[in-house]
Amino acid sequence: MAHTILHKASDRFEIISDRGSSYFSFSFGDKYREDRLGFGALRVINDDVIFPGEGFGSHPHDNMEIISIVQEGALTHKDSAGNEGQATPDKLQIISAGSGIFHSEYNTSTSHVCRILQIWVYPNVLNQPPSYRQSEYTYPSPLNQWQLLLEPGLIHQDAWFSLGSIGKGATLSYQWMNPSNGVYAFVIDGSVEVEGHHLGSKDAIGITGIKEVSFHAETQVELLIMEVPMIDPYAPL
User: Fold this and answer.
1) Which of 69, 75, 140, 150 could form a disulfide with 161 if both were Cys (CB 3.0 to 4.6 A apart)?
2) Are residues 132 and 17 located together in one domain of the fold?
3) Domain end position, chosen among 136, 154, 175
4) d(Cα 85, Cα 19) in Å, to the nearest integer?
């Protein structure tokens, strides 16, 4: 039997500043709720708009897998290990912070915003050497099929991320890669029906207890599926 948890877009944390806007699906920084500490190994989903010429100066991370999905514009990365790169809507950015790294992220455009989803996942092994990589994918995503963005080996976790674009009226099923995992589905755009719930843009649903789930598109919809272990992040590895 499926167990679900529904997170509506309107219930996210919000920060508006001169730098841009951020919407947090889970507790982040000084925005905190006891019932919003993540979903299994999934710790952060930040939906950010970065204004032209703005960004995040050099700051530290450790023992976290950080995935940036650019929806519009480009995100320029530099870090203390000497890595530099630019993520775009067809190029995923993956940082394994490991034993510790400093990095900065900027929208270097002078005229266009950068829209990103930044996602953090707890690793399954600690204090590894930090790394930076990019992974290319097809954008826009092919219609009515899942496109695998992330799998074990690209990050230090038994996790799979898939992107799906579903045409209005169509149904697309997702089968778990690991039946003991949970699935967190985030609606990037459009509306969809799943497990009796109607989800709109930026709504999300966490699903456990089953091995397959169907998504019925009420409009053309773009979905991000994050399949992660349902770990207790505070338990020792």
Assistant:
1) 150
2) yes
3) 136
4) 21
